[in-house]
Every structure is written in C-alpha cells, then in structure tokens.
Amino acid sequence: MDNLNLNKHISGQFNAELEYIRTQVMTMGGLVEQQLSDAITAMHNQDSELAKARYRW
C-alpha cells in the first residue's frame, strides 16, 4: 500500500478519508494479529485465565 498513488484523486478530502480508512483497517489488522497470537499462546500453554481475560469488552 505504500506505493499507492493517492494524488490521482481529484478531491483532497477523499484522499484524507481514504487514508483514515486505511489507517483504521491496519490498526484492526494489528489487533486481530495480537488476539490470534494470544489465543494460540493460551491454547499452547493451557492458560485458561489468559483465554478468559483477554479482550473482554
């Protein structure tokens, strides 16, 4: 995505919103990656407390 040329769009506001969405998606991806890692660790170590405690809303 770093090579994405956002200058081709006419609207600067569109570019800003597109970058915001990109940032949000990347952030969500990072959270999913961490949650998956924690889940695998909890299963591997049979750590029920880690499995229960992480990411409760």
From TrEMBL:
<dbReference type="InterPro" id="IPR038078">
    <property type="entry name" value="PhoU-like_sf"/>
</dbReference>
<keyword id="KW-0592">Phosphate transport</keyword>
<keyword id="KW-0813">Transport</keyword>
<protein>
    <submittedName>
        <fullName>Phosphate transport system protein phoU</fullName>
    </submittedName>
</protein>
<dbReference type="GO" id="GO:0006817">
    <property type="term" value="P:phosphate ion transport"/>
</dbReference>
